Amino acid sequence: MGSPHFAVPSLNALVEAGYEVVAAYCQPPRPAGRGKADRKTAVHERAEELGIEVRTPRTLRDAEEQARFRGLDADLAVVAAYGLILPKPILEAPKGGCINVHASLLPRWRGAAPIQRAILAGDNTSGVTIMQMDEGLDTGPMLLRRELDIRGKTAGQVAEELAELGAEALISWLDRPTPPEAQPAEGATYASKVDKAEARIDWNLSAAQIERQVRAFAPSPGAWFEAEGERIKVLEAQVGDGTGAAGEMLDGELTIAAGTGTVRPLKVQRAGRGTMTPQELLRGFPIPPGTILS
Description:
294 residues, Rossmann fold, Methionyl-tRNA Fmet Formyltransferase, Chain A, domain 2, 2 domains, 8 helices
């Protein structure tokens, strides 16, 4: 039970390890891209390639859908970034219940956006937790944890590495199950869903905070600022020591003053264009020193 690219390595690992996958549950295809044609999720596409039955219910609260799920007579449900709440009848249907591949070191960062929240908070370490699911939000007992150093990495890089780490941890536990361990009461934090408004750069923040914001929202939705009414995404940035008014363009290399220190974007993107260096941006879109960016 999973939808995005993060869940694909776990599906692949289950098949490669010889486990019988009786069905794949994914979010329904949704309009995407410029043509707004319906697009299948990454797990949906991979499951079809593997010849696995795909089911895409919009809810699992329907009694008929719950009966279909029970009819699979599954030993276990593996959940990874599925995107739907699992009600009690679903959680209890498989003989071994439902286990989750969660992208944080629980109990830190329970919830929808653990990778982005870990980077924004300045955490040095994240990881994956294989957990037994209950009716709470990522509150079930832990089965196995694996750590990952996330310093200097973007959310995209961390997601890719945790997806592989999670797949390895999943098979490790399935092959050699260990007893569940209750999550500690202390240290629990909530990783709320990312609001696109959070991606707008606030130049009053410190340079270190802005650099974390850039990494947390790369590649999507992309941290951004506005210049001459146009939105410029920052996909990679470097922290410096200079001073100036918050948001002030300090030189001809796109060095920008923050509340404390400076930020120099290294990779940027204009709307509808590919990624480019600051020099490439400024050749076609001059921003004079002294300009205050918003």
